[in-house]
Amino acid sequence: MTTDAAHDPRAPRAAASVVHYADEADLIVVGYGAAGASCAIEAATEGAEVLVVERASAGGGTSANSGGLIYVGGGTALQSALGFEDTPEEMFKYLMAACGPGPDEKLVAPFAEHSVAHFDWLVEQGLVFKEAFFPGAHEPETDESLTYSGSEDCHPFCEIAKPAPRGHFASVMGSKGAILMKTLMASAQRRRVRVRGDTLAERLIVESDGRVVGVVVRSAGEERCLRARRGVALTSGGFIWNEEMLEQHAPWLRRCKMKVGTENDDGSGIQMGIAAGAATIRMDAADITLPVFPPVSFREGMLVNCQGQRFLNEDAYMGRWGEISLLHQDGRVWLVVDEPSFGQPKHIPDIEVVAGDSIAELEGEMGLPTGSLQQSAAFYNEHAARGEDPLFHKRAEYLRPLSQPPFGAIDLLPENSVYCAFTLGGFHIDADGRVQTPGGEAIPGLYAAGRTTSGISKQGYSSGISLGDGSFFGRRAGRAAATAPT
């Protein structure tokens, strides 16, 4: 840890050098998205005085701009009302398989075990969920409140854990992320949480023993010091908008056209923590989504690489499409369809398509090795006619021979398509949101949650996990900070 701000603008300031504190609270929360709001609510519920500093004029951030999908399960009231059986054990098995390789069991276990209680807490804050299920392969624009939001019901995960939909939405037409944040911020306001907008956190304030006791902020062009009697919680988002950090940790993400997040997802909170001695892990991890659905008919096609070979079951979650296409196939992939399965992707308006009256002609137009696509299509069609997929086990409802010309191939190279990405790497935390050092010790007075941390997803992802684990571990961080000694 260094306190030399001349060389590192994020270097913490020594508490002994602070002459005056402009404000103070038991807990200072940096960033007012779902993680920060949940942290503030829980700390205030425990009796702490909470001050939130938010660099934007108002709270919400990426959470408000999101689809509002919250990943919870294990047998929530909504799941049960709609006839879906789920248990914490099945949820745990799925997450350990889908959030890897190497997800942190110490985070996944409490998230699964207490997920039902967390859903109940969300309802207590004022979120309303409609007893209606959305069966599509994408986020609904209607007011249904439950959907499959990952790969729970497809191979290989459906063999590992009993499938159950765990994507929970507040029941509202339009922006579900906005209503989520409106509800959480109203709950925080009822608990007398104070918020300072247009206030940029720049550095942490630390004692000589390393304890975090405050934040240096900038507001209206002036630097101010804020004192935290019990601790500081960093909940300021990831770093998808920081080109230098992307180049250092995950340069392949720079090929993704759509950065999921606001420009305030610039890694500043992560940098502040690193300067104070925090450990980061999985900084190369990201959610990479290829939003090809709708139309759902694309699941009937063949996803092939530059050798004309299939490499994934096409009924998989869109995030799995994106991750495996970019990281395992360098993005050099095509979606092969016939006339009935073709459609205009809603979220990829400018698609690059080549066509042919036969698979052989299409293969030539794609520039694939001679015979490669023809062999793949012949094998696929033979088994699809019997409702089988011996290679990748696509569900029978999406299996049929691709036999009706004209045939098309949609170019899914990142430069010709739309890959959506945000970062998953960040602070190493324990189950109570305490930020760890590289040696595995908690930094006194420093907490974190949301995409500022490396949460339950270490690479694989399911939609809603960021709002799910961000709000869950935000609450735990708030509770831990509120009950910490002064």
Outline the structure in words.
With 486 residues, this protein is α/β, with parallel strands linked by helices. The chain has 2 domains: 1-286 and 422-486, FAD/NAD(P)-binding domain, CATH 3.50.50; 291-416, Flavocytochrome C3, Chain A, domain 1 (Alpha-Beta Complex). Helices cover 28% and strands 20% of the residues. It has helices spanning 34-45, 61-65, 77-81, 88-98, 105-113, 115-125, 157-160, 176-190, 243-249, 268-275, 318-329, 359-366, 372-384, 465-482; strands at 13-14, 23-30, 50-53, 70-71, 133-134, 146-147, 167-168, 194-196, 199-206, 212-219, 222-234, 258-259, 280-281, 286-289, 302-305, 333-337, 352-356, 407-411, 420-423, 426-427, 434-436, 442-448. The strands form 5 sheets. Strands 1, 2, 3, 8, 9, 10, 11, 21 and 22 form a 9-stranded mixed sheet that branches. A 4-stranded mixed sheet has the order 4-7-6-5. Helix 4 runs antiparallel to helix 5. It is elongated, with a radius of gyration of 24 Å. The relative contact order is 0.19. The mean pLDDT is 96.
Quick one: overall form?
Answer: elongated
At the fourth level of CATH, the homologous superfamily of the largest domain is FAD/NAD(P)-binding domain
CATH class of the largest domain: Alpha Beta
- Which radius of gyration do the C-alpha atoms yield? 24 Å
Q: How would you sum up the major sheet?
A: 9 strands, mixed
**CATH architecture label of the largest domain:** 3-Layer(bba) Sandwich
Our estimate of the beta-strand percent is 15-25%
Structural class: alpha/beta
Can you count the helices? 14
- Residue-averaged pLDDT, rounded? 96
How far apart are the first and last residues' alpha carbons, in Å? Answer: 23 Å
Number of domains: 2
Low-confidence segments = none
CATH topology label of the largest domain: FAD/NAD(P)-binding domain
Helix content: 25-40%
Q: How many strand segments?
A: 22
